[in-house]
Amino acid sequence: MIDIHNHIIPGIDDGAQTLEDSIELLKLAVDNGIQKLVCTPHMHAGRFDNDVDTILPHFIKLLSKKNKLKLPIEIAMAAEVRISDEFMMQLKKGRVPMLGQWEGADCVLLEMPHAQIPMGIDNLINWLKRQNIRPVIAHPERNKEIMRYPERAQALADKGVLFQLTAASVSGQFGSQAEEISQWLLDKKLVQFVASDAHNTTRRPPAMKAAAGVLDTWVGEEERIKLTHTNPDVLTQSIFLKQHSQQYSQQHSQQHSQQFYQEKEQ
Ligand SMILES: [Fe+2]
Hints:
Blueprint: E1 2-3, H1 19-31, E2 36-39, E3 42-43, H2 52-68, E4 74-77, E5 80-82, H3 85-92, E6 100-102, E7 105-111, H4 121-130, E8 133-138, H5 144-148, H6 151-158, E9 162-166, H7 167-170, H8 176-187, E10 193-195, H9 208-219, H10 221-265
Parallel strand pairs: 1-2, 2-4, 3-5, 5-7, 7-8, 8-9, 9-10
Antiparallel strand pairs: 6-7
Helix pairs in contact: 1-2, 9-10
Fe (ii) ion (FE2) binds at residues 5, 7, 80, 138, 197.
């Protein structure tokens, strides 16, 4: 499986706090059958003041520790961005790491406030569309307005929004209403992705295996594979590729300079 939403990078939001926490989470992710994982720390103005510059060094630290331990999982970097005026400014300045691409558009993982669908979301979607950016909305099944009026999710989907359900909602850990709305959204074919939104190893682990079991009974194995592997793979191919080419060019330039110094010493 490929997990496109979690808080595994240490010390920059309310997820993992130490590098040891992060490694424990990655081990749990491996046990859950996750082969690739996109780290998506919060960017939430005034609460978690992150952007690409604050996230990247912590991500690189985690990546090198993971490589050193030879954990059998690939990781890449994006962010979960709270809808706000700051978000629009950060996006304009290129400070928001993207989640990947879908049907030729760049994608950003967006978080709505929990109580409602924010006013002006239609304008925001149109503004993003003009820049060829498509929002992936995180956990619509936990938004109070969508819980009350699920058909409002259909209106957002009609405007081109993609949806990501949280694994723990599917398996009932966020209560029966979130579970029912998850099922409703899946029945209406509004969901493209299921992800863990993991924060820690105890209360909010990367529990994809349990969700996969439930999805098999709700939508069948073929659709479950789409939601947890095929669609996330299509979405994130560009960011994993980018990372591979960066690692390659780093290795390449290191090899090059080693060769240069060796030749000079001879
Ligand atoms: Fe999250």
